[in-house]
Write a structure and sequence with these properties.
By secondary structure, this protein is an alpha+beta fold. It has 3 domains: about 110 residues, Nucleoside Triphosphate Pyrophosphohydrolase; about 30 residues; about 140 residues, Nucleoside Triphosphate Pyrophosphohydrolase, CATH 3.90.79.10. About 15% of the residues lie in helices and about 35% in strands. It contains 4 helices and 19 strands. β4 and β5 form a beta hairpin. The longest helix has 19 residues. It is globular, with a radius of gyration of 21 Å. The structure holds zinc ion. The site of zinc ion has 8 residues, from loops.
Length: about 280
């Protein structure tokens, strides 16, 4: 597998074949016949579609990788269609590098299209050279593409796991998750979110891996935590149910393309002391 290498600071690409990750909102534009791949093109743009906000993302082997955007009302020519990034992430055969590049592209084009005027004084921003950020010259305020950390944690006790579900999830159960708050580290966030959502205390909090989750710009930071004490007291505003499941009577859970599915897999394989997620779909022990 040829890795995707970010071009930072943004510079001229070195690959001889040019591919474009083009977004229309949260949807990536793809060819009907190549539904999980970026569009072919030249250094000036993708074939068969006119884009704006073009920039270089990096390289992948002999590929020069670019990002661009089309307006929400852009009509696609025959042979093109869109796929929601979340759908793309769940498709079989999509490599981690395509997902990484697509997530990077989506977040950068979103930042570039939504960020126009200084939040402090209202003057127009200008691009900072060799950087993804913007600067307001009148007041010197600078802004950069946001990334919001959120924790996701599997609570276990021997052969049981404590899983939760929300309205709209159907029969599927998953892990406790929540945004990190200002002034908080990840371990404190894990303990707080668990306490708030299901009312129990945990110990032996252990980091196992992370996943970019570009909806709109999270990075999910994954943990295992051992149950310590307390009875389940569910946050009924956020959850529809929270309960213990035995290892041999598990409900429907997230797929392995999501970090929640991978953390569950570590526990199911009895690797809570050693299991580690490296990259998007690779689990090392
Ligand atoms: Zn300003």
């Amino acid at each position: 597998m040829v890795p995707f290498i970010r071009a930072y600071p943004p510079n001229r690409p070195t690959g001889s074949v040019h591919v474009w990750y083009v977004f229309r909102g949260e949807d990536m534009v793809v060819e009907v016949n190549h539904g999980t791949q970026p569009l072919a093109g030249t250094p000036h743009g993708p074939n068969a579609i006119t884009t704006s906000e073009q920039f270089v993302l990096g390289t992948q082997g002999n590929l020069s990788v670019y990002a661009a955007v089309v307006p929400a009302d852009c009509e696609l020519s025959e042979g093109l269609q869109t796929v929601h990034l979340r759908t793309l992430m769940n498709q079989q055969g999509v490599t981690p590098d395509v997902i990484m590049a697509a997530s990077y592209a989506k977040q950068l084009v979103e930042f570039r299209t939504l960020t126009r005027f200084c939040t402090r004084c209202g003057a127009p921003y200008r691009s900072i050279p060799n950087n993804w950020g913007y600067r307001c010259d009148p007041c010197a305020f600078e802004i950069f593409p946001p990334v919001s950390p959120a924790i996701i944690v599997l609570i276990y006790s021997g052969d049981r796991v404590l899983l939760t579900t929300k309205v709209g999830w159907g029969d599927r159960y998953s892990l406790v998750a929540g945004f990190t708050e200002p002034g908080e580290n990840f371990e404190s966030c894990v303990a707080r979110e668990v306490r708030e959502e299901v009312g129990v205390e945990v110990q032996n909090i252990r980091y196992v891996g992370s996943q970019c989750w570009p909806f709109p710009h999270q990075v999910m930071v994954g943990f295992l935590a051992e149950y310590k004490s307390g009875e389940i007291v569910m946050d009924a505003e956020e959850l529809a149910d929270a309960r213990w499941f035995e290892r041999d009577a598990m409900p429907l859970t997230p797929p392995p393309t999501a970090i929640s599915g991978q953390i569950l897999d570590i526990w199911l394989k009895r690797q809570t002391e050693t299991g580690m997620i490296i990259g998007f779909d690779r689990v090392l022990t």
